[in-house]
Amino acid sequence: MRNQTDAIQWLVFAEADLQVATTAKVSKKLKYAFLMFHLQQCVEKTLKAVLVFFAIDFSKTHNLEYLLGLIKKNKIAIPAKVKEAQYLGQYAVITRYPGDEIEVSKKEFTEAVKTAKLVLKWAKTIILKKSDKLF
Description:
The protein is mainly alpha-helical. It has 5 helices and no strands.
């Protein structure tokens, strides 16, 4: 199935962002806020994988709320915990440029990692097992 193959490629990229975020060594120069960008990217690419799997067109965007809205509009069940991931959308741009820095604690980062992993697990259940019954 072509949509499954393409969706899996999106998941590979999402997992790469998760790996960058979770394996990088935090320092004075590399702060949690910067790594939050990669968690946002993980969730964004994961949501896009679900859309690709179901052959739903989407525009180029970093807007997680928009992507979740498209999924919902197409009657794909979204668990509440997955919907909560939209808060990561704020890290798509704000952490990327000087002057826009925000502080992120280790606890906030750890929770965001859990959220990204949960979204990935949900998408994999749909794409790899063709089932949305896990949640």
